Structure formats: C-alpha cells, structure tokens
UniProtKB/TrEMBL annotation:
Family, similarity comment: Belongs to the glycosyl hydrolase 1 family.
InterPro entries registered for this protein in UniProt: GH (IPR017853), GH_1_N_CS (IPR033132), Glyco_hydro_1 (IPR001360), Glyco_hydro_1_AS (IPR018120)
Name of this protein: Aryl-phospho-beta-D-glucosidase BglH
Superkingdom of the organism of origin: Bacteria
Pfam families: Glyco_hydro_1 (PF00232)
Keywords of the record: Glycosidase, Hydrolase
Signal sequence, start to end: none
Residues the record marks as active site: E376
Stored SUPFAM superfamilies: (Trans)glycosidases (SSF51445)
C-alpha cells in the first residue's frame, strides 16, 4: 500500500439482491418466492422478525413494492452502464432460485431465467466488471416452504446442490466469485427469509433454526465440492452478518454476555470456515433443547469442503448488557443489544460505528486467517431530490468515508481484505421494511413507497465521490 491507497487489485464495487431490484416477479416463467409474498410493513414484521404466523399468500388489492422493484429486470443495461461510469471492478448481485427452478424441485431448469442472468453477466463483463454471485439471498421458491417446510427438511440439500451445479455449469466460465448463502447466521434471528421457516404454535424455534442451519451447512459444502470439480479457478465464500460486540460495562457478567452473543455467529462461521462445530456447541444445544439430526457423511463433507473466503455485512455494532430489564434497548438492530451512549444513530436506529468495522475485521482475520470481503456496508437514509436533479447526500459520504478509512487501517495492520461492495449501490426495496423510502444508493431511483414515480435514475453527490475513491484506489478518502 502506497500513498494511502488500497492494495493493487482491490475489488471496488457495490451490492444488490435480486428480490430487491429485479421486479418482474412472475415474468418469463419465474415462480413465486418467499420474498414475493411478504406483505408490506408493518404486517410483515411478525413473520419477518419472529418467524411466526401462517405461510403468507399474496393479497389482492395490496401493493407489494418488491413485485416491480426498481425494474432492474428490464433496465439492467442502463444500470450497469452507470456502475461502469463509477469505475466498478466488481458487482455483487444474486440469482433468484425461483427464476431457475420455479418450484425448486422442477425436473428441468427454466431456460428464460438462465438466459436473463447470461445477459446480465455478459453486460458486466463488457465493462470489465467482475460478477460476485450470491446463490441464495433471502429468497427461495415458495413451493419449497409449502411442500417441504423450508430448510428444516433435509431434502432441500439435494435440490440446492442441483441448483448450484446448474449455475456453475452455465456461468462458471465467466464468474470467478460466488457466495453460497447471504448472511447465513440470520437464520438465528429472521428464520423466514433466511430459511423459509414458519414456526408452528408450540414448536421449539431453536430446533427448527439449527436443524435448518445444519442442512444449509451441508448444502454449502456440497456447492464448494461441485465448484472445485467444475470451476477449479473460482472462489466460493460464506457470508455472515458481521458486527463488533462490546460489553455495555466492565461488569464481568456483561463480558460473559458479550462472549455468548458472539458465539452465535461464530458457530456459523466455524462450521463453514474450519469445517467443524465449535467446542461449545454441545452445551449450547443442550440449553436450547436442540437435538441435531445428522447423517454419517455430514462431518466429512463439512471438514473437506470449507470456503475460500469470508464475506460479511457490516452496518453497526452491538453493546450487550446482562440486565434483561435494561431500559434502553437498541431499536434498529436485528442483533438486539442496548443503546451505546458513545455512538450516533441513523434515521432507522442503527448505531454508526466505523471503528467497529476495524474491530470486526481483526477479530475475523485473527480467528480464521482467510481472505475477507466486505460485501455490504452503507447508510439507509431518507434522501431528498432537489430541483435540478440534485441529491446532496453528504451524510452518506461521511458514513462511507469513515468506514473505508478504518478498513484501510485494518489492511495496514495486516488484515487481508480483498474487496468492498457497498450495499444498495442503486436505490432498492428495503428487505427489513419493504419500502423505497430507506435509500442506500449512489443512484437515486424515482419511486416512492406507494409505487409512484417514473423509475428515472439520477446520480447523487455520493456517485461522484465514490467514482473518485475508485479512480484513486482509496487515496482520495479524507482522514479529517
């Protein structure tokens, strides 16, 4: 690293998910997915955050923002040209499983769906942008939930492996970077969109969650195995929701609570990176009355087919208190925790902590020693479109600048970080709230929560800022 630049070949870019941008939710043979039937806020929250309720169905007369998204399905060429204008080296997107296998267990893949992603990948490569493909990003065929019960059913392992092999055979000559499951540890927090799991009345939620996680671990290992057979030059990574975790006070009980909080995510990364469950798992499962059902070959598959890199999202840190009645709960954090008085919060209650990103990078690299990739980071905010097509999002520039400064410091301190794709590089539908108002992008999309607007794309102030960051390989970042 020289002149405050990032390492040569650093992968600068941005990230989106199919179910949040594509729209065309039933076009060209696509089947319904779990994300397609999630109702708008606030009706979605009970199912989204707790996994409880009935399997949702689309209600006639209700507007679902994700059904049209930002119409990336028809406008991808325009959007990719804008990403290329910023100088993107990599673009993370996902493939909608239900575009390829509409019911998940179809005998043959849907050619129209395969062709769409052919076209997207080729358009990216035309501009020299590497695709980073997530195979399952909070989105799976609804029929796999209706007919099999989601990932709690072991039969999904073989269906996912077939899906993965289909993708590798079709796109393996052009795609070098793959992620098996988006934020796989979110199964423990939001099981419906992570695993297609609806918790039945009286069911042990932990049993459903960790049995589903085990099936995803095995499926991921089989995908890694297939990738090494079919694409020996490719890199396959896991992806977790990352955080820095602090004990709220120096009270010893708070440190124990922080340790146990961290172990929930470490269980997921240990299996996928080290190839085995961590030593504390037996006691952890016993406390939660979990009896994992496995097969003899599972341990060998997990051991022999670990991932090549660790990718993660980072938006906020978590302060943890041992006091269950602590009065100041963190409102916007899916991980829970309490409000950290030393940090500011975003409009949605997510506490802003750039130093926490540096901590998270060191903690992961120290534990695993494998290349790291920040594949989500960004600020959700209510942007204002001013006359003259101006969006002055200095708050977003400040957020991203401060996080990238800390990422650069971690690299200087020895962490191997291979890339950075900020979340929602073009405005999209929020996964947590199902709305357009919560914007992350460098590109403003003229669409509101009720479906009004022209879908016109408009460059924000941050568009030009990020273009300069990429052009200088990070040297233009401000330390002030």
């Amino acid at each position: 690293m020289t002149n405050n630049q990032f390492p040569e070949g650093f992968l600068w870019g941005g990230a989106v998910a199919a179910n949040q941008v594509e729209g065309a939710y039933l076009e060209d043979g696509k089947g319904l997915s779990t994300s397609d039937v999630l109702p708008p806020a606030p009706a979605r929250f009970k199912l989204l955050f707790h996994g409880k309720g009935e399997i949702p169905q689309i209600e006639e007369g209700t507007y679902y923002p994700s059904h049209e998204g930002i119409d990336f399905y028809h406008r991808y060429k325009e959007d990719i040209a804008l990403l290329a204008e910023m100088g993107f080296k990599v673009f993370r997107t996902s493939i909608a499983w239900s575009r390829i296998f509409p019911s998940g267990d179809d005998e043959h893949p849907n050619e129209a769906g395969l062709k769409f992603y052919d076209d997207v990948i080729d358009e990216l490569l035309k501009y020299g942008i590497q695709p980073l493909i997530t195979m399952s990003h909070f989105d799976m065929p609804l029929a796999l939930l209706e007919n099999y019960g989601g990932w709690r059913n072991r039969k999904l392992i073989a269906l996912y492996e077939r899906y993965a092999r289909t993708l590798f055979k079709r796109y393996g000559d052009r795609v070098k970077y793959w992620i098996t499951f988006n934020e796989i540890n979110m199964l423990a927090h939001i099981p419906f969109i992570s695993g297609g799991i609806v918790i039945a009345e009286g069911e042990n939620k932990a049993q459903a969650v960790y049995q589903s996680a085990h099936h995803q671990f095995v499926a991921s290992a089989l995908a890694v195995k297939a990738a090494r057979e079919l694409m020996p030059e490719a890199m396959v990574g896991c992806m977790v929701a990352g955080e820095a975790i602090y004990p709220f006070t120096s009270k010893p009980e708070d440190s124990i609570e922080a340790m146990e909080h961290a172990r929930i995510t470490q269980l997921f990364t240990d299996v996928m990176v080290k190839g085995e469950y961590p030593y504390y798992t037996e006691n952890f499962f016993r406390k939660k009355n979990v009896e994992l059902v496995t097969e003899a070959e599972d341990a060998v598959l997990l051991r022999d087919h670990t991932v090549d890199f660790i990718s993660f999202s980072y938006y906020t840190s978590t302060a943890v208190s041992s006091d269950p009645d602590h009065p100041d709960k963190a409102s916007g954090n899916l991980f829970g925790g309490v409000v950290n008085p030393y940090l500011q919060s975003s409009d949605w209650g997510w506490q802003i902590d750039p130093l926490g990103l540096r901590c998270a990078l060191h903690q992961m690299y120290e534990r695993y020693g494998k290349p790291l990739f920040i594949v989500e980071n960004g600020l959700g905010a209510s942007d204002t479109l001013e006359p003259g097509d101006i969006v002055n999002d200095d708050y977003r520039i400040d957020y991203l600048n401060r996080h990238l400064i800390e990422a650069r410091r971690a690299i200087e301190e020895g962490v191997e970080l291979i890339g950075y794709t900020s979340w929602g590089c073009i405005d999209l539908i929020s996964a947590s709230t199902g709305e357009m108002k919560k914007r992350y992008g460098y590109i403003y999309v003229d669409r509101d929560n009720e479906g009004g607007g022209t879908l016109r794309r408009i460059r924000k102030k941050s568009f030009h800022w990020y273009k300069e960051v990429i052009a200088t390989n990070g040297a233009s970042l401000s330390d002030n």
